[in-house]
Amino acid sequence: MERKRVRRGPPLAVRLSRLIAGVFLSVVLVVQGAETNGKSTAKYGDVDIARLRNADRNPEQWAAMGRTLNGTYYSPLSQINNSNVGKLGFVWQFKTGTYRGMDATPLFVDGVLYFPGIWGSVYALDAATGKENWRFTPKNDGQFAKWAASDVVTRGIAVLSGRVFTISTDCHLFSLNAANGQTVWQTDTLAEYAPGYVCEGPPIVTDRYVIVGNAGGDNLEGGVRGYISAFDLKSGHLAWRFFTVPKTGERNPPRALVAAARTWDPTRDPKFGGGGTVWGQMVYDPDLDLVYFGTGNAAPYNAPRDWSGRQASDRLYAASIVAVHASSGKMAWYYQTTPGDVWDFDAAANLVLASLRISGVERQVLMQANKNGFFYLIDRRTGRPISAAPFAYMNWASGMDSGFRPIVNRAAADYKSAPKIVYPSVLGAHSWPPMSYDPQTGLVYIPSLETGAILADVTKNSGSRINWLDQQFGVTEIVPDKTLSYDFWESLVGKLPRFEAPASKRSLLRGLLRAWDPLTRRVVWEQQTSANYAVLDGGTMTTAGGLVLAGREDGAVVAYDAKTGSILKTIQTGSAIMAAPMTFGVSGKQYISVLCGHGGMFLNFLGTAAWDYINEDRILTFAIDGAPETPTPPRRTPPAFRVEPPLARNEYPELVEAGRRLFITHCARCHTLNTPAISSDLTRSSAIYSIETLDAILLRGALSSAGMGKFDEVLTERDLHSIQAYLVNETWDAFQEERGKSTMTREN
Question: Are residues 24 and 133 in the same domain?
């Protein structure tokens, strides 16, 4: 592999001129944005920390990602309830005109719905009618999309003091006037201009700052270095920055990183960032002045690990839950959920704050259903775990020791010695779709996945013909979906273990909605939401009406009885749903809204509504006595009958095989062949027939503005000929297979 070139920022003089221009622009926009047509705009986005702290006094509002500062995704509204939800129907929809993943939950403040789209865009709608008030579309450096493991999604926004805060894919933070969407200020959030960084996570606001993280812990050969940054709400100036992992050779590191450095290999490559990125939801406790967040995986996955249980390879503070003081950014405490993470068990799932009575004492707790399969109950003042129990099947660990450190089952989990099937999979027992907490039932509602993954280090496995997999650090992440072909994978990476079919004949890959009791540490009820395909069914919301609501990737919006799990209402929408719904009230009427659109880490449409319908990004809104039918997107048109490829089949098997390995290594994470997906099916693309066109796209970035970045740091012009040979032959195979089926149909 060619040595990767480090991109450097513009000269100092250029940066200074941009800074001066930016400050001037910010001042101008603050003055211009203060009023609209001579009228005060203060009523828009009229939220402060006091209002968020006392959210239950205004139950019709949904002004934060999880409605309150506690991030519970629970609403006190009960007009829609378990006795009348059968009459829930469609009210209005709004289409954004985009066709990629929608991950966020809308916010509602005083009659206006605010929600993000892709690339960091923001929309403001009249909540009762769905009429657009304004939209904001930031300019992005499209090359950043190359580093986005979850495509160009935006996971959330924040509203405070008349401003809407959003972050673009290329890591610029924007403060927008809530009345009209005009930019008040913007700032580049990156500490350094280096390849691999990308931004998608929701900002969080405190009384003084807006705080953001970044992503990229799966990129390059050792990930980027994770951190969060706090910016002044009014000016956008940097206030403080907290790095989650140490840097080799760093001068005068803070005390927390001095301690963390003792858990990393001191001889590791200094260009490795180490991961630990913060891209999930954060929560804020103003009483304790603490901001809580989960950190991403350590990087690379397959680094040396001390299996003895000592801390020498824990790699702090990756795969951890961390609390920092909001006023200073200094660490208050941490708890590492997966010490020595080599399985991509990040701690990025949403965190929920609650007050629970435990052994007769009221405790202020933090809860998380972690990707690693453990449900954690933690004292949020001190960071000391109260309990940790499996909420899903696992084999990587057999339990917890007395210090709440996982007891790792090396025989099942050490895939460097030989390929292993590890449970949960790298997709996680619970990923980013939010769980919710209902204080009435005392239950947490977790969108979970029950499956394992074949992990194999391609650099060590006997018979492997490749030495890298992009955004996987050369580790296979094979799940048992319907498309799994052992022959295909073994021809690339060598011998692999087989999944064993369960005795119950149920699917080896299932999505489940689980109701979990955090005090008794048991599943109270569960409902299957998907099977056989790797999809992420939607996050959950619960209400005082005795309901749990969640969408599914097959297009259903489902209302469950919060106590029993009985399905009370199913609405078919024709749109894949990954985001969590929310609810709000206008003029005494309760509504439910949810964002729709498949995308993120899975770009193909297998197992989703986008297989049959156009993958339109839209928001749907429902209410009691709404229309019985929800409009679906247009039906997907079957692809045109293939014509004979204009280039002859390549007759050099070594060249074709080299192209196959390059494609699997660098391209397959986005492009699936012969399968409908967000990304183009390259066996139907005319671009593959021209080396000049491939050169323009892959080496010179001709399509970077659309999110197809260039790969000139890992591909050469010679590689293009190999990739072309492979794709042309794949196109011939598809053409001949289709023609054969057509002949058989005519004969029958």
Answer: yes
